[in-house]
Amino acid sequence: MAFLTQTRHDHVLVLTMSSPDTRNALTGPDQFEDFENTCRAINNDKSVRAVVLTGEGSAFCAGGNVKDMRDRQGLFAGDPFDQADAYRDGIQRIPRAVHSLNVPIIAAVNGPAVGAGCDLATMCDIRIASSKAMFAESFVKLGIIPGDGGAWFLPRAVGYSNACLMAFGGDPVKAEAALQMGLVSMVVDPEELMDRAISIAQGIASNPPHAVRLTKQLMRASEKSSLDELLDMSAAFQAVCHAEPDHAEAVAAFFEKRPGNYRSS
Question: Is residue 101 a part of any domain in this protein?
Answer without folding.
Answer: yes
